[in-house]
Every structure is written in structure tokens, then in C-alpha cells.
Amino acid sequence: METGKAKTVELVKPTINDLARHAGVSLATVDRVLNNRPGVRGVTVARVQKAVNELGYIRDTAAANLARQRVYRFVFLLPNVSEEFVDALQQEITSQSATLSNERTQVETLRMPYADSTEIAKAIDQLQRETVDGVAVVAPETPAVRDAVARARERGIVVVALLTDLPSSPRDHFVGIDNRAAGRTAAKLMGSFSVSDRGSILVLTSSRLARDHLERRLGFDQVMQQQFSGMEVLPTIEIDEAKLPAERILAGALKNLPDVCGIYSTSSSNKGLIDFLQKTAGKLVVIAHELTPTSQAALQQGVFDALISQDKGHIVRSAIRLMRSTVDAVPYNITQERIRIEIFLKENLPVS
Amino acid sequence: METGKAKTVELVKPTINDLARHAGVSLATVDRVLNNRPGVRGVTVARVQKAVNELGYIRDTAAANLARQRVYRFVFLLPNVSEEFVDALQQEITSQSATLSNERTQVETLRMPYADSTEIAKAIDQLQRETVDGVAVVAPETPAVRDAVARARERGIVVVALLTDLPSSPRDHFVGIDNRAAGRTAAKLMGSFSVSDRGSILVLTSSRLARDHLERRLGFDQVMQQQFSGMEVLPTIEIDEAKLPAERILAGALKNLPDVCGIYSTSSSNKGLIDFLQKTAGKLVVIAHELTPTSQAALQQGVFDALISQDKGHIVRSAIRLMRSTVDAVPYNITQERIRIEIFLKENLPVS
DNA sequence: TTGAAAGCGGTACCAG
DNA sequence: CTGGTACCGCTTTCAA
Fold first, then answer.
1. pTM for the structure as a whole
2. Is residue A194 domain-shared with residue A297, that is, in the same domain?
3. Nucleotide nearest to B20 (CA to C1')
4. What are the tens digits of pLDDT across the range B175-188?
5. For residue A210, what are the domain limits?
6. Closest residue by Cα to the C1' atom of nucleotide D7?
């Protein structure tokens, strides 16, 4: 810890020319072994590899991509539900695509009915290795999806599960938060923000994105039971505005259950809930997911008490970095790719 | 929102060759106007610029950097206090430097006594434009520092304020959290986690990093007063282990103040506090800053209730991206550079 | 099985 | 004031 102690990193960076000279072969041969292309004698390969090790060679990806005129082509497969968060995610992809195209990366977004996993599977099956390098998909974990993912990977397409994991599918990566931990966090906040240590909690969900919602509920129950056992967590109510307005459902539920003191919505589309709460006098602790203009306003007004969120920009960048490095079979920095569980309170809302 | 609606981005990317042809000039001339080098007639400049606009030319930075053999040289100036967080930050810089060197970026870390701003100013003054492109500095806001920053910028060195802002200095950017909002968040959690709505709160600080600590305290007071006015926030106690062990100070304070129900430490070095708390029976709500191995353990054990943190990896990457794009005078994505206020509870601790 | 040489998109030096 | 050209690090024909 002495003052001024400095730490520098050398930047000598041997090139393939150095390798060629060192190994006594031509550039072309060096390139062949570097990219393990066929047609090089074992001895020659060994000579080059020795040079690589001795000189500590690291390929300059930028130069390689330039020479190769490489373009990465990725597809995002999102549900076509009218959910603010998903729309915002697509918006994010679109707005990043400008920058991305300067980084030799092409992105395309496809929207599919989330519930119809046959449709999704079909869409995945239509992805040709010749035209796409990787796909990031938001999908339920059904056999149809699993098999389509497996086939895509066999074709050599990199597959990333987005938002909701597909652990039983052979996907290359999952990009999204740990939803069980998110549920635990929601519970901790719910319990802490409640003035009383008893009462019951309403849990709301949307039918879509099933697995992540389930995981959230599991984590929620776990902590409520461990730390706030005086409170009762009611069975999950599924809200589908298309069938029945949220306000109706909620009004009914609250009438029958007079001791409800909190609401946890595992969903990210809460317009109906917000409308209902704004008309209701009683003070409930309300926790929901995802920071969107709507939910942010609700938080600001005090209708919501906390929001569990994940950064859309980070998710998109992370998915792309992971697809890119997987395609190129180069390592990536895992710490940069962990999507954090963000907690928003009125007090730490981003200044917009 | 139709199914399958696709959004693609073209990747035609005109090159300087296209520009040259289109404008009827040579590559060299195109290069001159692109880099506004002298010695080109106004008409010619106009012709090239017209071509740029008509073709929608965007420079390929990777190719340019290759040709130019560009290397970015940045310096991080950190306090040489023995604080876990700062050490971790230096560690982060070091571990990123491997990747960075493959991105034509060289980083060097210097450690300076935080309290001695003349020393810091001297260190900044010693940075030569010939050998460094940018510096990220953690420093108190004193006239000496301000002037040194101004001189560095006049020499053409990009300056980024790290962790604690230097708003009155002509720094190019600030990389770190909004510390007032962080304090507000701490207060909200403090009030919510407290079982009673009265009692008094101890606020601890380390003498260093003054401005950010001050801002945290301000934000804290604001929300405590607004939302938890039944609680009393006591004057800040400065802890300097070198002078007097934290345990002594705390034991003394708590003896005189029997109604203390919570502790907010604006500092990130809390070994003494943790030691003290582990030996103490009473249940206090304790909130501190920065996720480190020590603080994480304290959170895990229930000694701490919440941690307000900022991501070190993000901070370093962000500082570097900002310095790079400022040096090159190219735009950057502000949303990617906003350092979030992270809230860690036992429930959302990263699985390590 | 190997090497020579052109070229990717730019930059920079030298000549005119 | 402008153009020609070698070169950055790597890839990719084509020919030997």
C-alpha cells in the first residue's frame, strides 16, 4: 500500500508475423494452425503452437473480423403479448441495433404468441445456420420448445434463454435474473414494509412466462414462511385482462378477504392493478416487477411500494456478448453477465 | 404487434473508397477531410462531406485503430487508504487490464493519500499528455485538486471523477452513484426495517471521501425527517480506527444513548463496527455501504440488514468507455453508464 | 503440405 | 492542395 505503487500491463502483442518468423513458416501456415484448418503436417502444427506459447500470442479479433468481413446475425424471439416490459425490450433491441451495426452485428426481432409453443418451435426450426448465428428466446419450457432448441443447436446455432430459463433444454446460456431470489427479496420487503406482522397477502400473476412467475412465488413463500410466519400468503390469482378486468377480480377478492394487507404481483403488466389501487382508500403494501413508465409512476405516487426489476439494456447487451463469444468460442467475463436483481423504491428512482 | 413482425437493420456500410469515388477525389483527401486535417480546399471539403451525408458513411473504428496502431493509456488515481472497497476496486482494474490490453487499452493504477490533496494535485500535474490519454480520479474537492484537474484538461487529458463527484472542477464525467439518493434509500430501509417508529439512529462515517459521505447523510436526513419523523437522527460520528478503535467509540455512544435502534454507516469499511455488533446482544437495524467479502458475511449472518452498493466492474468499465469515447470525441450511450444504486439484502445476495 | 500475394477499412508518409 | 502507396494484423484465394 505504498503511495504511488504502480501496476502496468505490457502491450507488446506478438502478431502472426512474429509467429511465422519464430516458427520458420509462412503466414498462411500460421493461419491454418491458428484456425485449425486441415492440411498441415503434425510437426508443423507443433512448431507453430510452440511459437504461440513462447511468444504468448493472442489473436487480434478486430483485425481478424476486418479481414474476414465478419457479420454476426442474431435473432431475438419475444412473446407478442401486449406487455409494456416486452415492448420496451424490443424497443431496446431496436435502439441498440444502430450501435450494433457498427460492431458488425445484425439483430432482428421476431414476436411469437407465448402460449403457443408449437408456433415458437416452428419459428426456431425455421432459423437457418446459413443466415443466423444465434437466437435469444423467451419461451415456456415445453417439449416442443426443448426439441426445437436442441435441433437449432445441432445445426450450430447458439441459443440463449432470455428472461425465463430453459434448464432442461440444451441452451448455451440463460440471461435474466435469479427469479427465486427475486421472490425472496419481494417477501423480505413485503414483510418489512408491513406495519403489522399479521394479515394476508394477495399474490397476482399473469398466465404468461410461467416458469419465472413460479420461481418468484416459490422464493416469496420461502421467506414469508421463515421470517414472517404471522402472515398468510394466499393462493395465486391469475389475472387475464382479456377475460376479466383486473379491477373486478380484485374488488371481489378484497371483499371476501378483509384482512389483506399486501399484494405481490409477479407480473410486469399491472395497469389494471394500478387503476384499482388508485380508486381504493385502504393502504396496502404493494410490490411488483419491472420498472416501466407505468410502474415508475405508480411508485412515485406511492401506489407501489417497491419494484423488483432487471435492466433491459444490460439484458440485451449481455445476450449479444454471450452469443458473440459463444459463436467465436472465446471466453467471456461471467461477472459482467450476471443480471442483477434491482430494487427500486421511490427513494432511488432514476432521475429521468 | 402482429406475429412475426420483423425489424432488420441494413449493414451496407459505405467505405472511404465509396466516398472517394462518389466525391471524385483520392483516398488521402477523403481521409484529410474526415479527420479535418489542414490543406484541403473548401470546395473539396464540401464535396467529400456531401458524399458522407449522401452515403451515410460511418467510420469503422476498429479498422481505424488498427491502421493507426492506437493505444489508449489511462490512469486510475485511488486513495491509498486501507479500505476493502478501494482495494477491491484496484483489484478489479488489474483483473480487467488483461482483457483491456486486447482492446488496445493500457491501464495503470496509482495510489495517493486521500487526505493530502496537494499530493494528489501533484500526481495529476505529473501526468503528461504524451504518455496518458485520460485519468480517473478519486479525490476530495479542494482548490488544489480543482486546479490540477483544470490544468490536466488544458493539456488535453480527459478527466473522470470516480466515486465522488467534483462538480466544481471541469471534469469530463462523473462515474459513481447518486449519493443523495443512496442516503435516501438507506433511510427508507432504516425506517421500514425498524419495528418501532421511534428511537434514535446513529450515523457513522470515515473521514475520507468526504463529499459522498456528506451527500449520503443529506439524503438520509431528508427521508427520515419526511417519512419517519418519530425517529431522531443523531449527529454523525467519525470513526478513525487509527486513532480510536470503533468498538470503544460505539460502546461509549450506546451507553450514553439507550434508545438507539439503528445504525447507518456511510462508510464502506466496517470491520470495527461488525466486531462490535457481533459481541452485542441488542437487535439494531444496521445499514452500510458496499458489498465486500466482509460486509457480505455480515449481511449473511444478520449483523447487517441491508447494504447500499455500486458495482465495481461496472464502474471501471464505465470509466474506461467514457474516457475512450471522450478521447475519440465520439458519442456514448448514457443509459449504459448510469451506475445503479444496488440494494443488497440477505435475500438477494449473489450466489458466490 | 506449403507459400505468395491481394485485400478488409483506414491512416500516414512522400511526391508532385 | 492533392494523389499514390505502403502498411496495420489477419484471412483467403491461387499456385506451386
1. 0.90
2. yes
3. D3
4. 999 999 999 999 99
5. 179-309
6. B67
